[in-house]
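Appendix B, record 7
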Amino acid sequence: MKKYLLPSFLIFLLTLLTSCAALRDAASVQEPEVRFSNMSVQNINFDGVTLLFDFDVTNPNRLDVSADGYNYEFFINGQSFISGMQDERLEIGRESTSTVQVPVSMTFSNLYESFRSVLRQDSVSYRMDTAVSFSLPVIGSRTVPVQAEGVLPIPKVPRIQFGDFEMKRLSLSGAEVDITFRVSNPNPFGITLAGADYALRVNGNEWLDTALGESVRVNGSESREITIPIKLSASQMGSALMEMMGGRKEFDYKLTGQARVSADLEGFTEEQAVPFDLEGIFNLDDF
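Structure tokens (predicted):
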């Protein structure tokens, strides 16, 4: 069987043509295009938020290019708040699109310290300025800017107050009492109180240490009362029982515990514990 070998000049010609095509591709290199694609709330609660910005990077060239990293500056109400950079390398294939993801995390306590006016706002406007750096054949290093903007909700912690104290029955064996809590939702979105653990002390004696198992829904900018009927024995009430029987009207109370709260907000996926510590004086004549 005969073997046919390409003449040397044909091999040379093919190599030359291939090299010329590669040179033409390199000579016609264009900057990649960077576009804002999406912003998602990865996690948000009453303490802070983590955002994830997606930027689509399109390589129009017939050569692979490299994104060397990015830097960003995050603005709140037009003022710079957070900045950062990432130097992780990303390879972008010829004539294809890849996604660069830029996470931004912040605590609301830092936000309030920097922008006192935010305390009175349900949301803030944001702007994200990002610049992606590239290493490109022939033309060298290039930086392509891109911008995103929108509105970010600022969740506020619900207020839990000691409400009513209604004595239903009082005798030497104990008492039957209705205790009322008030839950106020300062947010424009609804919240759910999924339960609470609490302890009530009166005049230094622990009257109650229990949990609220029921869920309570509170719509945006509304308040709800939670009434809990309880029975107290003489031993639970301690000396307060005899003082009440004797006509004493004023008593110190201390209510401590934590409520488990969820919210109708994208990214608010888990119940958050909200502690409360309330104390004061209740007067039986007021109830």
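Remarks on this record: The first helix runs from residue 8 to 27. The chain has two domains: 30-153, 159-286.
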